[in-house]
Structures are given as structure tokens and as C-alpha cells.
Amino acid sequence: MEYSFRQAQQVDAPQIWEILARAIQRRKEDGSNQWQDGYPNPAVVDGDIEKGQGYVLVDGHTIAGYCAIWINNEPAYAKLNGKWLTEGDFVVYHRVVVAESHLGKGLAQKMLLYIEDFARQHMIRSVKADTNFDNAGMLNIFRKLGYTYCGEVVFRGTPRKAFEKVLVD
Q1: Crossing angle of the two packed helices 136-144 and 107-121, in degrees rounded to 10
Q2: Which pLDDT band, with edges at 50, 70 and 90, does 36 fall under?
Q3: I need a labelling partner for 59 at 20 to 30 A (CA). Which of 30, 97, 112, 150 fits?
Q4: Cis peptide before 159, with omega less than 30 degrees from 0?
Q5: How far apart are CA 40 and CA 66, in angstroms?
Q6: Where are the domains of the chain?
Q7: What is the mean pLDDT of the chain?
Q8: C-beta separation of 64 from 140 below 8 A
Q9: Which of 89, 93, 45 is nearest to 69 (CA)?
Q10: DSSP state of 88
């Protein structure tokens, strides 16, 4: 399969929300409290797209995955209970989801590699992210891709594991 990674457009929003809604349900079925508080929601997706921060992984004409990416803009990361590997510019991403029809194909990992390319294109060598303590899939991907556990951050009153990867060429 040939996938492409591009900035999301407003016309993509319904399909993105459908993917996110199903992912929220999967987290609930897994017994997780992640994404069970009304976040994310369609307004969050619309905001990502309007700000040019929403990105999709596309399989032909089908959206196979979604994430939000931005540079140096995660206030919670300034309050890390731990220590980041680097200081200065970083790329951060959130809401990494894969469509139900594309699960089990390694696409979340593929999206993270595209995010690393995004960082390199912007001459940034640090990628930071976080996830829920019980998100075994994401924790495994961080391990596979060489992320380092740096401590905890808090989002909406909930602690999350924070990771960083320093990129090398």
C-alpha cells in the first residue's frame, strides 16, 4: 500500500471525527479513562484544521489515520514532573488515531515517522508526546521508535506519561 501524509482540509473533518469517535469507543472498551471526558470532540478537530495543525494519513482517497501537530506550543510540557532531554524548539503531536479498517497495519508507527520528517523539514531535532498510562499500544510504539520516558505531565487533571525523541540524521 502506498500512503501519503498531508495537512487535513475542512472537507476531511467528518471522516476524521468518525475515526476519532470510534477510537474513543475502543479506549472505553479497553477500560481506559483516556478520552472519556468529552475530549477530543468535533470542535477540537475543526480547530486543528483551521489552524493548519491537523494531518491525515491517506490510503488512496480514504483517510486511514489522523493526528494534530504543532511546534513549541504545549503549555503543559513546561510543567513536566521530570526532565526533558533537550531545551529549545520541539514538535509535539496529539490525537494519533487509526481508522478501524486500517488497524493492525503499523500505521500509527508510520504516522510518527512522518511526524519525524515534518520536524526535520522544520529544522527541529526534538519530538515530544505523551499518552495515558494504560495506552499499551502507544507505549509500545514509543519503545519501538526509540523515545525516552521523561516524566509526567497533567492534562485536564489527569497525569500522563511524557516522552521525547531526539532526531539524528
Answers
A1: 50
A2: confident
A3: 30
A4: no
A5: 12
A6: 3-166
A7: 94
A8: no
A9: 93
A10: S
